[in-house]
Amino acid sequence: MRTNREFPSKELLNKLVNELTSAKDLHSLQRAFATVFLLLEKQQHHLLDMGSIANLVSTLERVNMTIPASTLIKAMLKNHCYPHLGLWSPVVENMSRVEGTALRALEIFVEICNVGSEVKDSALIANMKPDTRAFNAALNACLSLGSVERAEGLLEILHGAGLRANGRSFGLLAQVYAKSGLKDKILKLDEVMNLYKVFPDGEFYGSLVSGYLTLGDLESASEVVLLMLKKACKKCHNPVETVNECCGPEAAVLPDEQIYNMLVKSFLDVRTIKDLSRFIIRAQEIEQQLVCTDQTAGAYVINACVSLGYLDKAHSILDEMNTQGAKVGLGVYFSLLKAYCKEQRTTEATQLVSDLNMAGLELDASGYDAVVDVCMTAQDFKAAFALFRDMREAGVASLKTSYLTIMTGLTENHRPELMAAFLDEVVLDPRIEVGVHDWNSIIHSFCKLGRVEDARRTFKRMVFLRFEPNGQSYLSLVHGYCAAEKYFSILLLWKEMRTRTARALGKGIEAFKIDRDLLDAFLYSLVKGGFFDAAMEVVEKMKELKMFVDKWRYKQVYMETHKKLNLSRLKKRNFRKVQAIIAFKSWLGLSS
């Protein structure tokens, strides 16, 4: 054997190993492995810091080089260099999951347990001793190997290794038995757990259900879930307590989402929806005595169907439960409703809301808002209207969010005819704040589409319902008529606006504010249409309000439209119009 003088110094060796490890490329890791392995085999491990070895093993494990990592651990054990738990346990845990490396993981665990019983100086191996997690990793290796004998052998070394099993330990054992088709041994696990003073927990029950399902025994798996509920009923009597607060060494354990997912998948694969509905009803009968849970079996089952993508089957389950007279809570419906919304299945969502209402349940405003939003996103306007009608009939107090969602969606999709029909339907509902801006949106949308007569009808409907039009109402109509070259209609609109504002002032009512954009639009359209009397009225109004007027713009409009106008010939037919033209040209600074 080489003496210490034949090796570099401890400082240099550790620096070399750490540098090679930190490089993380295959060649560097192989060199680091070879260096550490040589030192271990030559029993020169005192030249290495445990931290350097641990860093290398951890890096090898992270890059899936578990065989070299486990080789170093075995070399350490062979040469009395005892690895601490944090060094060897992750490697064993990783290797235990794969059939090809599970046996090696199991051998390392057993060897560590044997070393622990052989070394008399407990201080040397104090940090190496396995814990329950490492023990479970070894059991998982037995599961990967499908070895009942090895799994039962691990139980025998529990006390010798100073270990304590937990619910997961026996859950893994149940899966080992199931993999080998040993149902009789699964049935005796309660007795074995009592011997080891281990109480069933969620992990144990989950593994037990998984084990039975592996055996194809859906009936026994269902009974395990019902047994969990029954035990919870016995242990949780205080209505103030939750399941986790129930006292005693064996706390009440309820089936969780993972258990229901496994069970539901098996039911839907090999049984009928009617069978699954019967199971839910049996579970709900037990849950009626259970005051310490806020989620029912029905909700879990529907959630499981949703997570597995069985939305249609979930709906069928609800129908079957209602047929069988089961009590179906709002939470059960809401889970499926959210799933329909997520997938934008608006027809099904609307039908589910209808079913919910027929069942005597009340969806709150936020629930309706969510479904209406999805309908509008999917452009299913009919469904959105139907839902909003249901909201009103159900007496939902807050309608504002859904109302705005519908109006905004229809505006964005350029559907003013639907906006008008919708507004007409809800305008008298005191819970909805309909304003002039809503009518203006419809008028504006109609005008943008060139449907000015529809816009005018909407305007008249607004006035009939005693909504006072404002500047935006008139501005949209002016632009619409101008685009359609209906200048006479703009003249009538100007006269109407003047009459309305004058009447308001006569009654001492403050009329809407007339801004420059509105008067500018009127002036441009009236000039283009050749209504110079009215155009001069607009000019006077702009002077009165001290507004800036871009005369150059109107010179261009006049010259483009009326430059060929023969005033002398026109004077014989319409003297008044000629006077208005002269006045307008004079205002523009054009010669007459």
Q: Which descriptors apply to this entry?
A:
33 helices; single chain; 592 residues
The rounded Rg comes to 42 Å
**How far apart lie the N and C ends?**
124 Å
Shape: elongated
Number of strands: 0
Instruction: Name the poorly predicted regions.
Output: 238-249
**Count of individual helical segments:** 33
Helix content: over 70%
Protein described:
The protein is mainly α. Helices cover 71% and strands 0% of the residues. It is built from 33 helices and no strands. The chain has helices spanning 10-23, 26-41, 50-62, 66-78, 85-95, 99-118, 122-125, 132-145, 148-156, 167-179, 183-187, 189-195, 202-214, 218-235, 257-270, 273-287, 297-307, 311-323, 330-342, 346-358, 365-377, 381-393, 400-412, 416-426, 436-448, 452-464, 471-483, 487-506, 516-529, 532-544, 551-562, 567-573, 575-588. It is elongated, with a radius of gyration of 42 Å. Mean pLDDT is 86; it is low at 238-249.
Brief characterization of the structure:
The protein is mostly helical. The protein is 71% helix and 0% strand. It starts with 9 loop residues before the first helix and ends with a helix.
List the helices and strands and how they pair.
Blueprint: H1 10-23, H2 26-41, H3 50-62, H4 66-78, H5 85-95, H6 99-118, H7 122-125, H8 132-145, H9 148-156, H10 167-179, H11 183-187, H12 189-195, H13 202-214, H14 218-235, H15 257-270, H16 273-287, H17 297-307, H18 311-323, H19 330-342, H20 346-358, H21 365-377, H22 381-393, H23 400-412, H24 416-426, H25 436-448, H26 452-464, H27 471-483, H28 487-506, H29 516-529, H30 532-544, H31 551-562, H32 567-573, H33 575-588
